[in-house]
């Protein structure tokens, strides 16, 4: 039996939780069940809070550097969970992957340059490219039998236009694809051929369902060593988003220096004391917690899929290979995204993410975060039924 109780329902109000306490702002009403933004309603491994508490025994929270032990915890984690050998000198730290992406855009491209994405995809990719005055080039994913595939012909055609940077979401949010070795190799080969840097956002890479295996694209071969920027974080894996701590792994010395130069320019090189302590504790002690979490999440996925199949047969669940996000295809209902949203909020009292938020190809979908105790999941599924039946 697991020693972790993921069934425990925890009241998260009065913690300034965006997920639970910004409902009025996001959904126009307080009375929706929040299954939207990607954090979990579970306690993280207790070793994280214990480490932070221990650090707080010394109440001076002065300027803090990242000690070598933190880099070693990352190195050890990547070897153990993903069989990826890195050198700790390859790591830069950032206050999140979104800021790291923005830094990478500034470091590796010029205003007006083209940056490639594959929609539907995590929406800040678009925002960071546009806010930095670069040009989004989109090669939408192909929806084949309720499963996303890469449109390689189009992908190559876009690269031929002179793209400087490709941002890949691996595993894929919102579709839950865990890209295969073949897919990753083909994408990396094409980027290599067309001299395009490859940023791999691997924030969801620890949340993988067997038999799928996450492959860090940077470990695919020395040929790609000089073109890959990998972003990882303990925040999604261990439910620590508020710690604002992530790591950017770049083996090429020149690229790493450019990345760090932009951080220095913007004054964003440092991460906060508790982010450092929490990150290290999570990577050092979180492995068995994560194994138990994945088993729990897999059952949530299975229960949600069975419920929707039995009660809402016109909705197709894209089976996630990774992530705790269910991507639901509602297109057979022939409703617009705003109509779906209204039904979910007003009739179902349910707060989900609308698919059109994720760019072209997301229309007619909703994203449901199932990282919650099973009682909450059941409540959410009943609300989904209430809204759409
Ligand atoms: C693909 C992806 N990248 C980045 C983030 C957020 O990263 P951070 O909180 O480290 O900025 C998320 C959060 O949902 C995500 O899904």
TrEMBL record:
<dbReference type="InterPro" id="IPR051798">
    <property type="entry name" value="Class-II_PLP-Dep_Aminotrans"/>
</dbReference>
<dbReference type="InterPro" id="IPR015421">
    <property type="entry name" value="PyrdxlP-dep_Trfase_major"/>
</dbReference>
<keyword id="KW-0663">Pyridoxal phosphate</keyword>
<dbReference type="GO" id="GO:0030170">
    <property type="term" value="F:pyridoxal phosphate binding"/>
</dbReference>
<dbReference type="GO" id="GO:0047804">
    <property type="term" value="F:cysteine-S-conjugate beta-lyase activity"/>
</dbReference>
<dbReference type="GO" id="GO:0008483">
    <property type="term" value="F:transaminase activity"/>
</dbReference>
<feature type="domain" description="Aminotransferase class I/classII large">
    <location>
        <begin position="35"/>
        <end position="378"/>
    </location>
</feature>
<dbReference type="InterPro" id="IPR015422">
    <property type="entry name" value="PyrdxlP-dep_Trfase_small"/>
</dbReference>
<keyword id="KW-0032">Aminotransferase</keyword>
<dbReference type="Pfam" id="PF00155">
    <property type="entry name" value="Aminotran_1_2"/>
</dbReference>
<protein>
    <recommendedName>
        <fullName>cysteine-S-conjugate beta-lyase</fullName>
        <ecNumber>4.4.1.13</ecNumber>
    </recommendedName>
</protein>
<dbReference type="InterPro" id="IPR027619">
    <property type="entry name" value="C-S_lyase_PatB-like"/>
</dbReference>
<keyword id="KW-0808">Transferase</keyword>
<keyword id="KW-0456">Lyase</keyword>
<dbReference type="InterPro" id="IPR004839">
    <property type="entry name" value="Aminotransferase_I/II_large"/>
</dbReference>
<comment type="similarity">
    <text>Belongs to the class-II pyridoxal-phosphate-dependent aminotransferase family. MalY/PatB cystathionine beta-lyase subfamily.</text>
</comment>
<dbReference type="InterPro" id="IPR015424">
    <property type="entry name" value="PyrdxlP-dep_Trfase"/>
</dbReference>
